Amino acid sequence: MHMIAEKLREPDPKMNRFHLADVRALIAPGEPMVMAVEQTLAHGHGWSRSAAPVAERIAISIAGAIVCDHLSPGQRLPEKELSAALGVSRAPTREAMRILERERLVDFQARRGCVVAELDEKEVMELFAVRSTLHEILFAQLMAEQRPALASLIAQRLARLDALQHGPTDHYAVGSYLLNLSIVHLCGNRLVADLLTSIALRTLRHLRRGHATFPASVARSLHSWRAIHRAVMLGDTARVLTLIQERTDDARTASLNAVRAKDQKNH
Q1: What are the start-end ranges of the H helices in 146-236?
Q2: Pick the CATH number of 2-116 from 3.90.1150.10, 2.40.50.100, 1.10.8.60, 1.10.10.10
Q3: Average pLDDT over residues 254-262
């Protein structure tokens, strides 16, 4: 993913042209973060991860770089230079930027063009307020209609999360995020599922930052998943909803602190 940022800074794009089939090489195919981005962007589009259209493959690569902070908030993404670095025409690059704009990962600004979206406290508060409300609806419905499937899914992923907690915080962030995404896909309420998916990458961006800035938050996150699983097994919906709210509050606090820490460092 570092390659994207490097390419945008290099003066001679002819030295760094990629064949169309190599667009995904901007991020290692087995990179956990790109798997998370792929699964999110593929939702509802009807394409498989291995056969994504060109614009979506470009969007996947750039989104992964943004989520991992290899492309910094406020950094310009000039269409001409980016297309040259990728070795593609400007049309799919332009479409990729529009996909990322819908995901709120980039903004289009007057006289500056496309830039990586900034991170601020207001966005964190708004994002997690919406997420909290949607999660309450999601888990209440799953407890009423699909409790065995929910319990089984969490149990299957807990062993993986146990192993991930001892590795890089990014890997744990992705593992926890993919569990959340799988839970969303269990939901029969497509509106709730689509709304949660629409804010998923912005959520991942903040969660990754929160865990990276405060590694101790990983253990707390894993503890909460275990507690949620116990409550699901017991059929205690009220307890599940309380734990989900506490989990959202913890994630919001870690994300706010990460934004503040970054602001202090920049100043």
Answers
A1: 147-164, 169-186, 190-198, 200-213, 217-234
A2: 1.10.10.10
A3: 91
